[in-house]
Amino acid sequence: MTLEEIERQFPEVSKNTREAYDRLNGRANRGGLYAQLRGAKETLKKKGLLKGVKEKTESEILGLEAEIREAEAEYNKFQTQKNLLTREFNKLKKAEEEGKLKEVTAKGAGNVYQKAIDGLKEAELSLQGYKGEEKYQTAYRKAQAAYETAVSSGLKPKPLGTPRIPVPQVEDETSKGKAGTEEEAEDNLSSFISTLADPANSKLLEEVQRDFAKNFGYKGPVDGQYSLRFQDEVDRIARDRSSLPKSLQGKDFRSFIADDASAKLLNTKTGGSGAADLTDYGTIASPSTAKSAINQIFQAELQRDATAEELKKLTPGLIAAQKKNPNRVKMVNGVRQTTQGLDVGQWITDRVQKLPEFAQRKKDKTIPDIQILQDTARNNGLTLLPSQIESYRIRLQNGEKVETIQSNIRAIAANAMPDNVKKLLDAGSDLTEVYQPYRQSMATILEIPMDKIDLNDPTLTNAITDKGNMTLFDFKKSLRKDPRWQYTDNARETVSSGLTTVLKDFGFMG
After folding, report:
1. Which DSSP state fits 158?
2. Cα(7)–Cα(400) distance, integer angstroms
3. Is residue 180 pLDDT above 50, yes or no?
4. Burial of 329 per CB tally in 10 Å (0-12, 13-18, 19+)
5. What is the DSSP letter of 242?
6. Which of the chain's termini has less CB crowding within 10 Å, N or C?
7. Most confidently modeled of 134-138, 322-326, 359-363, 418-422?
8. CB 324 within 8 A of CB 337
9. Burial code of 226-248, b = ≥16 C-beta within 10 A, e = fewer?
10. Dist CA 237 CA 241 (whole Å)
11. Whole-angstrom Cα distance, residue 491 to residue 10?
12. CA–CA separation, 299 vs 248, rounded Å?
C-alpha cells in the first residue's frame, strides 16, 4: 500500500470508526446503545411493573444486547483498520524519509566521484615525462577514495583502471589504527611466512612456489622446501604490492600471488638478473577510453565533441601510437625507474589542429562575439536561427559592435513584453535578470532546476504584466495552484502534514 492510498482510505475509515463509536456511546446530548441498555435494565428493576411492560422491556434488552454485539464488532473492525493504516502510514513515511536520505547521499557520492574522474582525466593529459606525476598521483588517490565512498553508498560506478604511473599509498593520520594498516599488513605477512616455513605445511609452500614461478618469474626450486632465496622473493613482491591502491591488493597476500593478473599490476617479471623490463602500463585499451580522451581535446579546441567519423579515424591511430610508445618501468637493483611514453593529449591536439575547422576558427575572430550573442538570445527566451547567426557574423566582420546587436536582440524579445519590462530591456538588462526572483521561487516550490524554467513559461510571464508586478508572496501562493505543484515533495509533505493533524485529532499519534 502506498502513502497516496492510505491518504485516500483514512478519512473514510475514520468516519466509519467515529459513527460506530457514536452508535455505541452516543453524541453530546443523544444516548447511544449502552445508555439505552442501562435505561432498559433500570426499568426492569422497578417494582410493580405490569406483566406486559416487563415482557416488552425484557424483549427490548435482548434486542439491544444483540445490536450492541453487532455494533461492537463493527467498531472493532473499523478501529483495527485505522490502527493498521496508522502503522502502515508511519512505516511508509519513515521508509520514504530514509530512502530520500539514502538517495541524496548516493547522488552526492556519485557527483563527487564524477568530479574526481574529471580531475583525473585532466591530470592524465598533463603528464609529460616526470612533469605532472605528483598532480596525477593526488588525483588518482582522490578518485579512488571517491569510488570507495560511492560503492559504500549503494552505487555501482565504473571502477578505476590501472593507474598511468605508479601511485604509492600515503598513510594519513585517519588511517592509523584501522584495519589494513601497514603494521597489521606486516604482522599478517610475518604470520604467512611463518606458516610457510613450518615443515608441516610443505604442500602449501610448494603451491605458493608454483604460483611465484608461474606469475612472477621465480627461478628457484618448487619443492616445498623453505629457503632464504624464496623469502627474498616474498619480501620483494609484498613490498611492491603495498604500493598499489587497496582495491587492487586483493583480500590477502595469498590470493594476490595466486592471481595471474597481479604481475601486470606490479609491472614486473623477475628473471633473476637484478634489472628487468616491467610490463607496459596505462595504455588505452578500449575505444570508449580513447573516445573520452579525444572528445576532451575536441571540446578544448573546437568546443564540440568529435563526430562518429572523426572517432572512427582517430581511435585506432591513437591506440596503435600508444602501444608503439607505451609508458615503461624498469627495476634496477630494486629501484623503480619510470619512462613516460606517448603524450596522449598532445597526440590528439596535433591532429585536431590540422583540421580545416581549427584553422577557420583561428582565423575567424567573430566566434567569441557570436557566442556572446547566442547567450544574450538564450537569456531573453530566444533561439537564433542559422541564418540569423550568419547575418550577425557578417555585421560583426563589417565592424558593427557586438553591443549594438545585443540591443537588437533585446528589442526583439521586448516586443511581446509589458512596458515596464521593455524599459528594463532597453536599459541593457536581460529577461533572466528581470525574472530572476520569480524563477528562483518557481525552482524552490515546483522543484524544477532554475535553468530548466523557460522564460516563456506562462506561470512566469504572469508575474509581470501591464497591471504591475506580483509580490513574491502572492506569486508563491499562485504556484501552489500550478498543476506541477501536486507532484512535488513539497506538496506530498503538505498533505502528509494535514493527515498527521487528523491522526493527532483522533488520538492515534502523540
Report:
1. P
2. 64
3. no
4. buried
5. T
6. C
7. 418-422
8. no
9. beeebeebbebbbebbbebbeeb
10. 6
11. 18
12. 33
Grid cell of 146 as nine digits: 571517491
Question: In this structure, are residues 137 and 120 in contact, taking their beta carbons and an 8 Å threshold?
Answer: no
Q: How confident is the model at residue 501 (pLDDT cuts 50, 70, 90)?
A: low
pLDDT in tens, 86-139: 777 777 777 776 666 566 666 777 778 788 888 888 887 776 655 677 787 788
Residue 312's SS3 state is: helix
Contact 154, 102 (CB under 8 A): yes
Task: State the maximum Cα–Cα separation within the chain, in Å, rounded to a whole number.
Answer: 126
Phi-psi region of 317 (alpha: psi -120 to 50; beta: other; left: phi over 0): alpha
Q: Is 304 left (phi over 0), alpha (psi -120 to 50) or beta?
A: beta
Only one residue has cell 540569423, namely 388
* pLDDT computed for residue 277 by the predictor: 43
Domain ranges of the chain: 1-160, 181-265, 287-359, 364-496
For residue 275, pLDDT beyond 60? no
Q: Residue 326 — φ and ψ, nearest 5°?
A: -80, 170
What does the pLDDT read at residue 494?
62
Name every residue whose Cβ is closer than 8 Å to that of residue 190 and which is 6 or more positions away in sequence: none
Residues 3-33 have pLDDT tens digits of 677 777 777 877 887 787 787 777 644 678 8
- For 30-58, give the DSSP string: EE-HHHHHHHHHHHHHSTT--HHHHHHHH
Say how far residue 274 (Cα) sits from the centre of its chain.
48
Distances (CA, A) of 128 to 266, 283, 284: 22, 15, 16
- For every residue of 106-145, DSSP letters joined together read HHHHHHHHHHHHHHHHHHHHT-BTTBTHHHHHHHHHHHHH
> Rounded to an integer, what distance in angstroms lies between the CA atom of residue 76 and that of residue 440?
50
Residue type, 174: T
Mean pLDDT calculated for residue range 177-199: 61
Could you read off the pLDDT of 218-256 as tens digits, one per residue?
A: 888 888 887 767 777 787 788 777 767 676 777 777 788
Q: What SS3 state is found at 170?
A: coil
Instruction: Name the β-bridge partners of 336.
Output: 331
For residues 169-185, average pLDDT: 47
pLDDT band (50, 70, 90) for residue 189: low
Establish how many alpha carbons lie within 13 A of residue 68's alpha carbon, considering only the half-sphere containing its beta carbon: 16
Give Cβ neighbours of residue 265 (< 8 Å, ≥ 6 apart).
Answer: 162, 244, 248
Residue of 248, 284, 247, 242 lying closest to 121 (CA atoms): 284
